[in-house]
Amino acid sequence: PSREEIAYFGAGPSGLDNQIAVAASQAFLNYENSGLGLAEISHRSPEATKILADTKAALTQILEIPDNYEIILSHGGGSGQFSAIVFNMVAMWVEKRRRKAMEELDGDEGRVLERVMKEVRTQLRLDYILTGSWSLKASQEAAKLVEPLGKDIVNIVVDARKTSNKGKFDNIPEEGWNLTPNENYGNDESAFVYYCDNETVDGVEFPKFPPQLETKSDKERLIVADMSSNFLSRRVDVSKYAAIFGGAQKNIGITDITFVIIRKDILTTQPSNSFLHAVGIWSPPTILHYPTLSASSSLYNTMPIFSIWISLQITLLLLTTHHLSSPPLLGQEHLSHKKSSLVYTTLSAHPSIYNINVPHPACRSRMNICFRIKGGDEGAEKAFLKGAEERGLLGLKGHRSVGGVRVSCYNAVGVGKVERLCGWLGEFAEKEGR
Ligand code: PLP
């Protein structure tokens, strides 16, 4: 079949806009008639520098990123950031403690070291909000990294499995968030508060910035969000975050690159390696060290310029397609809502056939719609997927840990393709219902 005949609903990597895929094949072969393909040119060439700068500028425009933020493009995917966030944010926490102790102890370095060492052991906390498989994975990675410093450093603020009727990640708890500072850990802020904005595997998405995280006291909370799978699908107030990150391969490109939008003071509030080591903490591996990546304009090592060029095309397309919408992402936000509503409405029209995994509409993902057929009837689910494949509707099998069906409606999936899928959903339901 041709690309046009296929509607691809895979969860990641996602499909690419057809026009961009065609242009990319040409750029891969012979970029701007230079006789070289984009994957062959140096990441330090003027062409590469321009691609990188243009991508950052487009992203800044789309997300209205304030001046006190930096964009870093890096390797390692979303998973790499599970570690990078811990290394860099813990180092920042240590540096803040060091500076405070220097002030209070009149620069007595011996006593400063002693105090910060003690604080690391007794007061360091990382807050994780668990609403799905990816935030769980991130918290497990953090626990592994900080384990040598002591137990209970990772504070599970809330675990959505405990507020689920089925013991699954299928909701966002409204209450019972045990954020640091709290009664167990005293009046100290955590190094950061982490959450995943859209849980790709479970189909759970925060409808907006979590109200529970709005700062009410003078203690600033450094909020970190994984936006791998809903990046650029709606407006985001970047100023509420210390860092936002995501792998590019859903809404802003192909695999290989990871976006990190980070507040600049995190880059400048970092201790020396020797101080970190003295208090018993590893310094971040260079490839994950935000200040190094930022200082080298994301060119510390060889970057995949071809992949970045694709991200540039996607951001430019977003800007031109929705050029009339202001602020810039409003048009895409409406579109994302429209596509997911089409699917949820169709599913809800056949309650005896389709069971949406996430009961509460407010936290159903607009990007990854997860459902079972006839309560998880294996034969029915197989028949549905087979019929879908015959109709050119691909990538619909649910994640292996959840089963069933998952419809991923990323930005490159057009409304027409979603309508085609809804047609099959309706047809299948009628056949099964007979
Ligand atoms: N976070 C989320 C929300 C994801 O969906 C994924 C991958 O699907 C990851 C993190 C991990 O990303 P990567 O595969 O780029 O390491």
TrEMBL record:
<feature type="domain" description="Aminotransferase class V">
    <location>
        <begin position="183"/>
        <end position="421"/>
    </location>
</feature>
<dbReference type="InterPro" id="IPR022278">
    <property type="entry name" value="Pser_aminoTfrase"/>
</dbReference>
<keyword id="KW-0718">Serine biosynthesis</keyword>
<dbReference type="InterPro" id="IPR000192">
    <property type="entry name" value="Aminotrans_V_dom"/>
</dbReference>
<keyword id="KW-0028">Amino-acid biosynthesis</keyword>
<dbReference type="InterPro" id="IPR015421">
    <property type="entry name" value="PyrdxlP-dep_Trfase_major"/>
</dbReference>
<keyword id="KW-0808">Transferase</keyword>
<dbReference type="GO" id="GO:0005737">
    <property type="term" value="C:cytoplasm"/>
</dbReference>
<keyword id="KW-0663">Pyridoxal phosphate</keyword>
<keyword id="KW-0032">Aminotransferase</keyword>
<dbReference type="GO" id="GO:0030170">
    <property type="term" value="F:pyridoxal phosphate binding"/>
</dbReference>
<dbReference type="GO" id="GO:0006564">
    <property type="term" value="P:L-serine biosynthetic process"/>
</dbReference>
<comment type="similarity">
    <text>Belongs to the class-V pyridoxal-phosphate-dependent aminotransferase family. SerC subfamily.</text>
</comment>
<dbReference type="GO" id="GO:0004648">
    <property type="term" value="F:O-phospho-L-serine:2-oxoglutarate aminotransferase activity"/>
</dbReference>
<comment type="pathway">
    <text>Amino-acid biosynthesis; L-serine biosynthesis; L-serine from 3-phospho-D-glycerate: step 2/3.</text>
</comment>
<protein>
    <recommendedName>
        <fullName>phosphoserine transaminase</fullName>
        <ecNumber>2.6.1.52</ecNumber>
    </recommendedName>
</protein>
<dbReference type="Pfam" id="PF00266">
    <property type="entry name" value="Aminotran_5"/>
</dbReference>
<feature type="domain" description="Aminotransferase class V">
    <location>
        <begin position="8"/>
        <end position="96"/>
    </location>
</feature>
<dbReference type="InterPro" id="IPR015422">
    <property type="entry name" value="PyrdxlP-dep_Trfase_small"/>
</dbReference>
<dbReference type="InterPro" id="IPR015424">
    <property type="entry name" value="PyrdxlP-dep_Trfase"/>
</dbReference>
